[in-house]
UniProtKB/TrEMBL annotation:
The keyword GTP-binding does not apply. It is found in: Membrane. PANTHER family: FOLATE-BIOPTERIN TRANSPORTER 1, CHLOROPLASTIC (PTHR31585). It is a multi-pass membrane protein. The keyword Flavoprotein does not apply. The lineage of its organism: Eukaryota, Haptista, Haptophyta, Prymnesiophyceae, Isochrysidales. One of its GO terms (cellular component) is membrane. Signal peptide: none annotated. It comes from the Eukaryota. This is MFS transporter. Its main location: membrane. Keywords: Membrane, Transmembrane, Transmembrane helix, Transport. It comes from Emiliania huxleyi (strain CCMP1516).
Amino acid sequence: MALPGSPAPRRAASPAKRGFRALSGLATQFFLKDSLGLEPAAIQSLLATAALPWSVKPLYGLVSDAVPIRGQHRKPYLVLAAAVGLAAWSGLAGLT
């Protein structure tokens, strides 16, 4: 039983949502293999590198909570992450 005022427990994703996620992942792997001609080892390296930011997410949260920038905890880190993302997408756009 949950305490009064505590958030409701999260429900697991429905099988349909998990299926759609798996389907899109499968399509991504086929695109990388068939359209870009990558070998399975290269695909796995690429997908592991893409998942790396999720691995450091707890560390990012701890740092943003413990080290304020100009008196703010979250906003400067979000702006910095957006700038890094913009630079990364711009770099990818320049490759095509």
